[in-house]
Write a structure and sequence with these properties.
The structure is a homotetramer. Chain A is an alpha+beta fold. Chain A is built from three helices and six strands; from the N terminus they run βααβββββα. Chain A is globular, with a radius of gyration of 17 Å.
Amino acid sequence: MSEEKANQYSLPTSAITNSSPSAYENWFEYPVRVYPHHTDYAGVVWHGTYMTWMEEARVEYLRTCGMNYADLVALGCDLLVVELSLRYHRSLRLGTTAILKTRMSELNGVRINFDYALESEDAKELYVTATVTLVAVDRERGKIMRQLPTSVKDALLKISNPMN
Amino acid sequence: MSEEKANQYSLPTSAITNSSPSAYENWFEYPVRVYPHHTDYAGVVWHGTYMTWMEEARVEYLRTCGMNYADLVALGCDLLVVELSLRYHRSLRLGTTAILKTRMSELNGVRINFDYALESEDAKELYVTATVTLVAVDRERGKIMRQLPTSVKDALLKISNPMN
Amino acid sequence: MSEEKANQYSLPTSAITNSSPSAYENWFEYPVRVYPHHTDYAGVVWHGTYMTWMEEARVEYLRTCGMNYADLVALGCDLLVVELSLRYHRSLRLGTTAILKTRMSELNGVRINFDYALESEDAKELYVTATVTLVAVDRERGKIMRQLPTSVKDALLKISNPMN
Amino acid sequence: MSEEKANQYSLPTSAITNSSPSAYENWFEYPVRVYPHHTDYAGVVWHGTYMTWMEEARVEYLRTCGMNYADLVALGCDLLVVELSLRYHRSLRLGTTAILKTRMSELNGVRINFDYALESEDAKELYVTATVTLVAVDRERGKIMRQLPTSVKDALLKISNPMN
């Protein structure tokens, strides 16, 4: 494991038990491209940039099941990030295109988990894996909701079913 | 737990076993203030913003033990983020000041772990807790280092000792 | 002019002499969508966010004439922003889609000017107009180039001709 | 002018008629430091980053005359950026510290202009000059204000007087 390129380094842990690209076959796919503003002095994507792509992919994923995030906010419901974890497997260089794959992995009351895998277009390189947990918040009352609005729940169940 | 404000919501999990502020008493302190560019439509800090503060705090923390991060990079050594996890306990509003506390929690070969806790100035509110793992990379050869440069190791041992 | 919504305010100056959407008819078009990370506490796009979209549009515009920006950088040529100006006419809200239109307006030695207009999809609303000036820099020698590399010049002339 | 370093390039125009550092002697000073997240692949500050520092300096400058920006927003008044222009004279590298100097240069009804100059600590290097125009907006009614709230006007007059 000693001789990887920095932009191709492997995580020196047992971080990902099975990173076989096929594991992400039926996930929602969001294509990304690395522009200068995504990079840092090392010529690769700055580690915080991935969170912008994860958010964008999540919003688009929800849209595929009929949920417009801006509408949801306008109706008084926020989906707040309460937990987040990322593992960086390989760096992504300026100009590279890649596919950010995501799926809803758990729906537990008002808590929603999303898994992510950022892969090369040919699915042979794994750049980043991540997990995000959101909770539904009532914007006006300023409180975590006791249950999801029906429309949200129905939409989420629609995307969760293909996984099972 | 039902009546918190959204900007004061508690994480509905056993996320932090003991978030007693005193736990962070001897950590390095980096003050932050919320400017408009840190916020999102919800009027609170966007969840990815914390990573910029964590990086800044880490660089300043290393400086206190004589390690200038830009010099380290110029000498050919990068500290790459390979793992990152955050838990968001309470939201931070526009204009708020807070203290980001950090310490090096582990030094294992070329892997370095930092813990973080973002607290209110009076240490009564806990906003975010986080952990980051870095590895030292040889920039020119493009490889994870087999061992830390002596100067880096000495500096890190200097900051790790007060903890023990 | 007194009764506009804040998200529909008009610039109280003679900023744009003629903002007739038809002015941008043959410009390169780059679609954008407002995600949460683009917004600030006011619920609209933070004023600095537009610069990320302008950069992305510019890189894609150059690609249409066969110039891959990452390749250009790899070959040792940077296009550095040396001047920039923006006028904000209307705010863009969370979830909105819009079209960022751009064209190269001037090529003068190693200086290149790009004009921008961010419009609604139906071209009836004008959100932002902007101008950016870049200069070509030799990355290795660290100097402004005396002339553009031939490949760059040819590509730029290719996109500049349709305008004249 | 042909032999400057890219990180020390001069703007090949008559951009700044007189960039004598003494011109900024009595301006408000906001110190900045370049962290990795501020940089791009070229190893220098990404051109959009300066807008975050300009906003921070502006908020702190207003604070010196007793105006807390978050309070202003809470009271229903926003200061929206309507025009912005920057000139990039020299690039700022990772780890560099510099002083962002600002002053209110004009107060015209609800329009407020700020000038900026980013200089090295010894005031011998000029990195960026910029101008920003803001207008006061009534958040609730969603309209540009006809006149500034008295408290705002008084505060701004307080900072504008020392200039004259």
